[in-house]
Sequence to fold (174 residues):
Amino acid sequence: MKKIEEYVRSIPDFPEEGIIFRDITSVLQDADGLHLAIDSMQALLDGVDFDVVVGAESRGFVFGTPIAYNLHKPFVLVRKKGKLPCETISRSYDLEYGTAEIEMHKDSIKPGQRVVLVDDLIATGGTIEAAAKLVEELGGKVVKIIFLMELAGLKGRERLKDYDVASVIRYDGK
Fold:
């Protein structure tokens, strides 16, 4: 049986020279790779008591939804601004060149609910930090944040130091 790292395609010098792009489409396109990715991420939740899974757009949906389904938990979307139809709360965060804004439905998290956040990749941690702040604004408690991959050189884990963070794969670089 292959290790999950063997399903990730590494593309040198993309999007710019010196960067190694870690492509998850090669994981998703292989039935065994997808199964292993979901199972490995779900295993990071062993022993965690939680009520809701929250996924960040868009690859957090890909991994978070099957985990929520398998564990019989509700799934909540965190989307880019302007994509949700009901009343929302929003949070801005910094990108490498500019800012972005994400939203959640105002009624998606109930006060006191224990929440797991899911995304495919932790780089700088900005998106998932903003998502955690949205959960907390609604009265939820973030009990765990999980990722398939971590680019440790971008120090996102430091930004999320107040949370329990876990990743399946850790790459030392950027």
The chain has a mean pLDDT of 95. The first strand starts at residue 9 and ends at 12.
